[in-house]
Amino acid sequence: MSDTTKIREQLQALLKEPMVHWEQFEAILQPVSFLAGDYLSEAGKTANAVFFIETGIVRVYTVHDGKDISMDFAFPGAFTASYASFITRQPAAVNLQAITPVTGYAFYYQDLHGLYASSHQSERIGRLMAEYQYLNKYDRELSFLQFTAQERYARLLQEHPEVVQHISIKQIASYLGIEPESLSRIRKNMSAPD
Questions:
Q1: pTM score above 0.85
Q2: How far separated are the first and last CA of the chain, in Å rounded?
Q3: CA-CA distance, 51 to 54, in Å (whole number)?
């Protein structure tokens, strides 16, 4: 089996207590890999997996009025999914697309729910993963209220400096809620000497 150390560490960090049933979790992990441009999950289809990103970058986006809107990026060490679709079993409203080659693991719906039914701690891990996603979304929404686009961009660069090497200006601008021209001005201002 592949090295699952990183995912175990992430789950352990969420749980904050010894994982009693790690072997059961490990048994349902499915190694996955995607080429740049591949879809992990597509809008209009029911999402069947939660992914743990070991290497690479995934973009979560939707299309509105013919325009791509980047909602999130998943970097190494993150869980990602079309959670609304995964939970409700309804077609997804978002796409998950590999920006770079991606490796990681998938927890498939049936396997994960079977595990939840067999172990209270496993069910708790699932709840904590959902809370993790909620807190990430809350933090992002709050950032739109508390920070300027330049501050949001600086924060993104601080947390994920590789973003400028792998993600297009158009996708980053969309994620920040601004036009690419505005992001170009922000980048110019940030690089100008004081």
A1: yes
A2: 53
A3: 9
Could you give the count of Cα atoms lying within 13 Å of 186 in the half-sphere of its Cβ? 19
Write out the H or E segment, with its range, that includes residue 112. Answer: helix 109-118
**How many Cα atoms sit within 13 Å of 69 on the Cβ side?**
11
67 forms beta bridges with 64
pLDDT of residue 8: 86
- Residue range 135-160: mean pLDDT, rounded: 91
The answer to whether the CB of 2 falls within 8 A of the CB of 30 is no
Residue-wise over 26-36: b if at least 16 C-beta within 10 A, else e?
Answer: eebbeebebee
Instruction: Show the tokens assigned to 19.
Output: 């994982």
Question: Is 66 exposed, middle or buried (CB count within 10 Å of its CB: 0-12, 13-18, 19+)?
Answer: exposed
